[in-house]
Design brief:
alpha+beta, 3 strands, 100 residues, globular
């Protein structure tokens, strides 16, 4: 039964009302494509100093771009915070440079 139209037809489809759209927008996860500069990311996440982030980008930049954790915007590197933190949790940064 459609609660808006009070129809009992299972196959009935209605266009969403403004209220339904507003509720959907409020509950969606809008952090998927939120980008920050290196400085902003470092200030918001003190466990990642600017130098450490730049070091990781220098050595693993192409892989980070492929993973979607960073994007280039002209000469700037922007960090997708959610993806960067997920890669960190998954162990992507266990070895950044050197070592065996």
């Amino acid at each position: 039964m459609c609660f808006l139209c009070r129809l009992t037809t299972d196959n009935y489809k209605h266009s969403p009302s403004v209220k339904e759209i507003r509720v959907n927008l409020q509950t969606e996860d809008n952090t998927n494509n939120y980008f920050k500069t290196i400085r902003q990311f470092s200030e918001d996440n003190p466990a990642f100093p600017e130098g450490g982030i730049r070091h990781a980008i220098f050595y693993r930049g192409k892989e980070l771009e492929i993973q979607g954790a960073i994007v280039s915007f002209g000469r700037k590197r922007l960090i997708n915070e959610k993806k960067w933190l997920q890669l960190t949790a998954d162990g992507f940064f266990n070895q950044i440079a050197g070592g065996q």
